[in-house]
Amino acid sequence: MVFPLSSVMARLEMLYTSDHASVVSMNLFVALLCACIVIGHLLEEHRWMNESITALVIGLCTGVVILLISGGKSSHLLVFSEDLFFIYLLPPIIFNAGFQVKKKQFFRNFITIMLFGAVGTLISCGIISLGVTQFFKRLDIGSFDIGDYLAIGAIFSATDSVCTLQVLNQDETPLLYSLVFGEGVVNDATSVVLFNAIQSFDLTHLNPRIALQFIGNFFYLFLASTFLGVFTGLLSAYVIKKLYFGRHSTDREVALMMLMAYLSYMLAELFYLSGILTVFFCGIVMSHYTWHNVTESSRVTTKHAFATLSFVAEIFIFLYVGMDALDIEKWRFVGDSPGTSIAASSILLGLVLVGRAAFVFSLSFLSNLAKKSPNDKINFKQQVTIWWAGLMRGAVSMALAYNQFTRSGHTQLRTNAIMITSTITVVLFSTVVFGLLTKPLIWFLLPQTKHVTSMAFSDPSAPKSVTTPLLETRQDSDGDFGGHDVPRPTSLRMLLSTPSHTVHRYWRKFDDAFMRPVFGGRGFVPFVPGSPTERSTHQWQ
Amino acid sequence: MVFPLSSVMARLEMLYTSDHASVVSMNLFVALLCACIVIGHLLEEHRWMNESITALVIGLCTGVVILLISGGKSSHLLVFSEDLFFIYLLPPIIFNAGFQVKKKQFFRNFITIMLFGAVGTLISCGIISLGVTQFFKRLDIGSFDIGDYLAIGAIFSATDSVCTLQVLNQDETPLLYSLVFGEGVVNDATSVVLFNAIQSFDLTHLNPRIALQFIGNFFYLFLASTFLGVFTGLLSAYVIKKLYFGRHSTDREVALMMLMAYLSYMLAELFYLSGILTVFFCGIVMSHYTWHNVTESSRVTTKHAFATLSFVAEIFIFLYVGMDALDIEKWRFVGDSPGTSIAASSILLGLVLVGRAAFVFSLSFLSNLAKKSPNDKINFKQQVTIWWAGLMRGAVSMALAYNQFTRSGHTQLRTNAIMITSTITVVLFSTVVFGLLTKPLIWFLLPQTKHVTSMAFSDPSAPKSVTTPLLETRQDSDGDFGGHDVPRPTSLRMLLSTPSHTVHRYWRKFDDAFMRPVFGGRGFVPFVPGSPTERSTHQWQ
C-alpha cells in the first residue's frame, strides 16, 4: 500500500495515460472535489469559512496524509501544471465572470475599475519590485536581474478575489461588488500582460525607446484583446440569430456558445493576446446579445452550466494548490535556511499589503474628486474593504511564479526553490489567514444596514429586485428584467438615470438603433415558444 | 507556412503543452467543431446526411488539406488517442444515454435488449472470429494467434448506433428506438468486457476450466459494474436529498451530479470493471431519483448540459476519426500490397454483415416466440431495420483496434498497419456508405404511418405527448409528466399497463414503498420553489 500510492501521486499530471496509477489519482481527485462541495455546503452558514479555504485545507490535509503514507518519500506528490491552469481552468472562471456581471454597474464604474485594475496594478507592481530590490539584497537568496525583480512585482500584483466575492453580495453592495470584481478581472489580465511583456522585453538596457515600446505593447494587448472578445461574442450572436431562427435546438445552441467562448480564448492565445481579457469581454457580449437569441431552456442551461463549470474550476484550483504545496523537493532547500525563507515570505507579504494600500487609498481619493454625488463616492470603510479584498494571492501568482522560476532550468536551483516556496507560503497564508478574516471584517465594516444598500437606489436597475421574485433563481445579467420579450420604450429609464451618464445614453441609442436589430438582444428577437417559462408568462399577459 | 503547420498537427495529442504549436491545432479543432455544428444544422433537413457523417467528412477534408499543405510529409497528423477517447469522450455519451433513455420502454424490453446486446454480440464475435480464421489464412497478412482472432471478433462486434439514433425517433418508433439504443449500449459494454477478457486470459491453451473462468469473469464484470453504477447513483440521490433539503443551490447540485457521474465511471475503471455499463446505470438511477431532488433550474440545466456534452463528444469523435484516417505511415505498408488490404477490409465488412444478420434474425425469432401480443412482436421490416442499425462501426472499434495492434510494439509492423488501416476502412465505409443509406432505408421500411406509431399505444406513457405541449422542450425521462410535484395515486396507471408485466408492478410497489421515500424521486420530494416554471404552474393549479 505504501509505495504504490506515492508513485501513483507522482503521475497525476499525466492525466492522459490510462495507467491504473493515474486512474487511482483521478478517483481521489474527483472524490475530493465532491467532498469539497458537500463540506462547503455544510459550512456555508459558518462565520469564517468559505469554499476556497475549505478546498485549500482539504488539499493540504490530503497532501499530509499522502506524505505520511509514503513515509516522506514522495517528493513530487503533484506538480502544479501551469498549462492545465491557463488552458482549462482559468477560461471558464473568467468567462463566467463576464457572463454573470451586472453590466450596468460595471460600465458605470468603468473608469474607477480601470484605474484600480490597470493603474493600480502597475503601482503595486512598481512598489513590490522596488521593495524586493531593496530588501532581497540583504538576504542570501541569489542573484536576480532587473527582469526577475519586475517579474516578482507582477507575480505578487495578481490578486485572487474569489474569496471576497463569495462574501460580498451583488445585490446588497453593488458598488463595492462591481469595483472589487471588475478590478479583479482587469488586475488578472494586467498582471499576465505585464508579466509577458517583462519576459519578452530585454529590460537590462532600459532606455526611453524601449520603455515607450513597452507601454505601446501593453496598450495594444489591451485593446486588441478587448476587440477580439467583442468580435467573437458578436459573431456568435449573429450566427445563432441568423441560422437558428425559427427552428431552435437547445443542445446545438449551448454547444455553439460554449465552443465559441472557448474559441475566443484560444484565438487570443494564438495571436499572443491576453486570453483573460478576451474571454471576459466575450462573456459580456454573449450575455448582452447571444443569450437573448436562444430558447429559454438554453438560457437556463448556459447560465447555470457556465456558473457550475466556473465553480468546479475554482474548487479544483484551490484543491490543487493545497496538494501541490507539499512537494518535498522544493522545501528541502528551504530546510537548510529556514530563516531566509521566512524572511523572504514576510517581506513579500508586507510589500503586498503596502503596495495595495498605496494605490487603493490614493486612487480612491482621485476617483472621489471626479464625482459630485456623495452617494457615488467611495467612503473610507469601503476603501478598507477594497484594500482587504485584493490582498489574497492565488493560482495566477502560482502559475506565473512557476513560469518565471522553473524556466531558467536547474541552474539556480536554490534561488528558484526559495522563490517558489515563498510564493506558496504567501498564497497559503494570504488565502487562509486573510481569507478567514474577510467575513468578520466585512460584517464589521459594512453592517447590514441601509447605508450600504441605499447606494443601490441611485441605480436605475434597482427596481429589478421588485420584479424578480417571479423569476427568483435567475439573476438577470442585463440589469433589467420582467419583460424581456416585450420591447419597451427606454425613455422612462433614461429619465431615471442620472443625466451625467451621457456616454451610456448614447450607447443605449446606438445599441437600440443598430446593434440589437443586427445581433439580437432583449426585445429584438421574436418570441420563441421554447420553454415552459416563456409559454406561461406569455399566456399570462 | 508550409512546414510549421505540419509540425503543429503532429502535436495535437500533446494537448497539455502550452506550445504555440498546440494552440494552433486546438484553435483549428474548436473552429472545426463549430463548423460541424453549424453545417450539421443547415443539413438537418437533408435527405441523406446527418451530423456524424458531416463531421467525418469535414475531418477527412481537413486531413487532406493538411496533407497537401505539408506536401505529403506529415506522417502523424493526429494520432488517435485511446485514452482521450475512453477517459474523456465516451463517459459523457454513455451517461447521457442512460440519463435520457425512456426507462419504461427500456425495462419492458429488457430481456430482448440483453439478448441482442449480450448474446448477439457473442454470436457476432464468434462468427467474425471464425470467418477471419478461415479467410485470413489465404491472405498474406502475417501470423495471428487465437487471441488475435478473437480480439478481431470483439473489435468488429462493437457497433456504433449514433447515426441510426439520429434518424430513429423516440416518440414515433419507441419499440425500435429502445431496442436499437439499448442494444447499442449493452453491445458496447459487452465488446469492451469481452475484449478485456480475451486480452487477459491465455487462450492458446483453451480447456473447460479456463472457458468456465472466462464466462464467470464475464458475468462478474456485468453484475458488479451494474451494481456500482446503481450504488453511485443512489448515493448521489441520497446526498442531495439529505444535504440540500431546504436550501438548494443550483450550481452545487449540478456540479455534484456531474462529478458523481464521472466518479462512477472512474471507480469502475479503478476496480477493473466496465465503466460503460456503470455510468449507463448511474445515469438511469440519477434520472429516476437524483433528478427529482433538485431545483427546476438544476433539472433543465442537467438535462441540456449532459445532452450538449454528449453531442459535442460525438462530433469530436467523428471529426477525430476522420482526421486520423490519413496518417501516412500506416498507409505506407498498405501501398505495397493494396490488394491484401482491400481483400481484408472486404472480408471484414462481409463478416460484419453476416455476423449481425445471423443473430438479429434468429434472436428476433426467439424473442417473438415468447410474446403473445402481436403488437409486441418484432416484424420482418423492423428486424431489417435493427440489422441495418447496428452495421456501423465507430470509435469503439478504432480504440480497441489501436489497443490490440499497437501494444505488441513494432515487431509486427506490417501486420499491425494492415489491421489498423482495415479497421479505418471498415469504420469509414460503414459510417459513410451504410450511414448515408440509413435515412432512405428507414423511410422506405417504416413510412410515417400509424402502423409504427400505434405500437406506442400499448405503452401507458403515451398520453404524455398530450400533456407535454405545456412543457414542450423537455422530454420527461420518466415517462410521466404534467404533475411531477403532485403525488398521484398510481393505481390508474397500473390498471392501464398490461397485466403481464408483473415484475414491473412489483418493482413499482417496492419503489413507492421503500426506494422513493429514502432516495427521493417524483412525488416524494416536497415542492421546491426554485424556478419560474414551477412557480407559475404551481400558481395555476
UniProtKB/TrEMBL annotation, chains A, B:
It catalyses: K(+)(in) + H(+)(out) = K(+)(out) + H(+)(in); Na(+)(in) + H(+)(out) = Na(+)(out) + H(+)(in). It comes from the Eukaryota. The keyword Ubl conjugation does not apply. Keywords: Antiport, Ion transport, Membrane, Potassium, Potassium transport, Sodium, Sodium transport, Transmembrane, Transmembrane helix, Transport. It comes from Liquidambar formosana. Gene3D superfamilies: 6.10.140.1330. GO terms for molecular function: potassium:proton antiporter activity; sodium:proton antiporter activity. One of its GO terms (biological process) is sodium ion import across plasma membrane. The chain crosses the membrane at residues 20-43, 55-72, 84-101, 113-137, 218-240, 261-286, 306-326, 347-366, 386-405, 417-446. InterPro entries: Cation/H_exchanger_CPA1, Cation/H_exchanger_TM, NaH_exchanger. This is Sodium/hydrogen exchanger. One of its GO terms (cellular component) is plasma membrane. It is found in: Membrane. Residues 31-442 form the Cation/H+ exchanger transmembrane domain. Pfam families: Na_H_Exchanger (PF00999). Belongs to the monovalent cation:proton antiporter 1 (CPA1) transporter (TC 2.A.36) family. It is a multi-pass membrane protein.
